[in-house]
Amino acid sequence: MSRIVAGTAGGQRIQVPPHGVRPTSDRVREALFSLLAARGVLEDAVVLDLYAGSGALGLEALSRGALIATLVERDPRACGFIQTNVRATGLTGGAVRRASVPTFLKRPTDTVDLVFVDPPYAGTEDEVDTVLALLVPWLAPDALVVLERDSRTRVPTWPEGLEPEEPRVYGETTLHLGTPSG
């Protein structure tokens, strides 16, 4: 079990699929959302939660003031857990989309203010680079991309159109942040 750390659904437990999901720890999530609150990016934000797993990041964003969170996950079982978590928290604005992340991103719709990219740690480095490139047309001018990776993996290759910031390291987890350039 995991929980929503703060906001309107703070303290509520959410279900996590038993296999194939590595939820962001409460400690890292709290540090991340403190940073997001300090930047003022949560209020009325349009959010993409890619590789959503349990939906913890997107739901945390909704709990803390985001307007819409699209939670993208390819695993049908995990999608069921996310749907359950959306209903259980009572948060509005959450929409679950069952698709592979690269496929979903090939059809941009509206621009987004905040993107969480939290793929499995193993074997996805090239896919991460592809996903970052596919994100560029989705981003509002002041958007923020948050990529969570194992601290032992290589630094992602940031595409033209995204400017990386200094990574934040929390033990075995590194958060890579990027903003639109130009």
Automatic annotation (TrEMBL):
UniProtKB keywords: Methyltransferase, Transferase
- PROSITE patterns according to UniProt: N6_MTASE (PS00092)
Q: Which organism is it from?
A: Actinomycetospora aurantiaca
Q: Which gene encodes it?
A: rsmD
Q: For this protein, what is any one GO molecular function term?
A: 16S rRNA (guanine(966)-N(2))-methyltransferase activity
Q: What is its EC number?
A: 2.1.1.171
SUPFAM superfamilies according to UniProt: S-adenosyl-L-methionine-dependent methyltransferases
Out of the domains of life, which is the source?
Answer: Bacteria
What InterPro entries is this protein classified in?
DNA_methylase_N6_adenine_CS, RNA_MeTrfase_RsmD, SAM-dependent_MTases_sf
- Spell out the protein name for this chain: 16S rRNA (Guanine(966)-N(2))-methyltransferase RsmD
Q: List, alphabetically, the Gene3D superfamilies matched.
A: Vaccinia Virus protein VP39 (3.40.50.150)
